[in-house]
Design goal:
alpha/beta; Phosphoenolpyruvate Carboxykinase, domain 1; Phosphoenolpyruvate Carboxykinase, domain 3; six-stranded mixed sheet; 18 helices; binds guanosine-5'-triphosphate; binds sulfopyruvate; binds manganese (II) ion; GTP binding; manganese; GTP-binding; manganese ion binding; lyase
Length: 633
Amino acid sequence: EDDMPEMTVERVHRAPVIKGDFKLLPKKVKNFITHCVHLMAPRGIYISDGSKKEADEFIQKLTEKGTLTKLTAFKENYLCCTDPEDTARIESKTFIVTSNKYDAVPHVKEGVKGILGRWMSHEDAAREMSQRFPNCMTGRMMYVIPFSMGPLGSPFSKLGIQVTDSSYVLLSMRIMTRVSLKVFDVLRDGTFVKCIHSLGCPRPIQGRVKNHWPCNPEKVIIAHFPEQRMIQSFGSGYGGNSLLGKKCFALRIAGTIARDEGWLAEHMLIMSITTPQKEEYFIAAAFPSACGKTNLAMLNPTLPDYKIHCIGDDIAWMRFDKLGTLVAINPEHGFFGVAPGTNSKTNPIAMRCFEENSIFTNVGETSDGKYFWEGLQDETPRDVTIKTWLGKDWHRGKSTELAAHPNSRFTSPAKQCPIMHPKWDDPKGVPISAILFGGRRPKGVPLVFEARSWSHGVMIGACVKSECTAAAEFKGKSIMHDPMAMRPFLGYNFGHYLQHWLDLEEPGRQMPKIFHVNWFRLGEDGKLLWPGFGENIRVLDWIIRRCDNDDSIAVDSPVGLLPRPGSINMDGLPPIDESELLSLPKQYWLEDIKENRTFLEDQVGVDTPPIIFNLLEEQEKAFRANQQATAQK
Ligand code: GTP
Ligand code: SPV
Ligand code: MN
């Protein structure tokens, strides 16, 4: 606040306040808005109240302009297609700006390119910002969006104010976060995260706007200033780059706050499983982007008499309460979920979430007013015609292009999820019994295994890897490290992050059990060994029996505790090659351990907590001593 110019009426009046009551805002908010007006020179200021009426006005305007297309088969569902160059998060343009480099990123080995976050100095950031933000909103409206991550007024929650010149962002923020003028009342003279976003397309527009989607791909930058509790994002309207409450705030900035305050901000779903005996267990699970969080959080169980409830599908804020229980809240208010692959078989619950009041980004469209994407072929009538997300005709079985972008998404209010937990927005949170890590691992990695201890679980999390997905700019399907599923979302030095996790273990706390799962192992025929989706209840069932310390179902192995053969309920499944699914190919693992050690030495270096190396070494020794693992392929 100190570094921001004092508000004067003239300066704000140069940009008229066209909605909202500026003079009633808290002083710090006035100063922030004034600063933004000075910097970006919008033609006006619009203070969003988050109401349905307001959203309806924007939807009407955007529909007239052609940015949104109404999907007429539904009540209030809209399609939005972006500039084809603005479809995913851009990790290479995402920075953490701190005074000390090693607050933001680890000591990477000389000559190695760090992949666990990108640091920028304040000097460089000031220069980069000065080449982008001045007057970047000329001729555009600046929307001011007051929002809460977590239930408004809960001690768990954090407040933010986002300014943006994108009405798509305004509509999406209203679904994804709690947007309300009450934020100003709760805030008073308190602090909020300053979120500055611009598409980087002042008017008159230079060059051509593609698809009614202004953006500035050459100049994209997403800069985080954890010390200033500020985010500056330029050039992209895509979700993860532009809905700043989500990854930028709730993971990167909140991660830093969480470290300082002793809690966790994680890329995790939160769900509950109720057994036929009516016992309820809450779990959190971290999988990299597009690796199955939404699908697990909304699982439709195939085992009889199990009930699933969803608390959140992407982000968890967790802390130990006074009794030593780890409790979690979902700071979000909606889902921004992967569309392709979602259908009535794989995820019937998600299909019901987006029956209305939803925005579909970069999916195809049918002539009968519905959405279309890869995975919906069997439930789309053959006599309708289909247009791709790029507006081209799409012919079943003939077109080689995709109908939907592989990172196309739906944006839906959480409360529309038919299995939302009654406590999903309870400010007190829910008690976590188990934490799962996982990823897309076509080879070598068993369906499920359990960590021996909290620190062993942290080591397993540090070694999470997965096949690349379309959620960011990487091409191809190579296996990448994505420790704790947080590689793109780290707000501070990953070595310090691991230490923070380790330090959470204290006497008197009930540490959740930690597991690793893999739904994506392939057999020799190249086909998935595990059916996944609703059948994953069988793995959750094993996990909760382990949470009750049923030792009869676990066997020791070099990676931790594996299911005893026959202990996962396979009733009613077609034949499953269980021994292949649970096998630990010795050679694969010896190479994997070596590769993980090199990764940590190169990428985290001296910042790696030594116990992580010790645990890797123990794992290697166990493999070398283990005859059984040798016998397996
Ligand atoms: P982000 O929103 O990017 O963080 O992703 P997410 O982790 O929520 O991933 P999501 O659940 O949306 O799944 C991504 C893709 O993986 C979709 O195409 C799903 O259909 C597919 N998928 C999810 N679960 C399974 C599973 O159990 N088995 C298989 N084979 N595919 C799955
Ligand atoms: C992810 O990429 O992990 C997402 C989508 O959940 S985004 O919000 O764009 O990051
Ligand atoms: Mn995500």
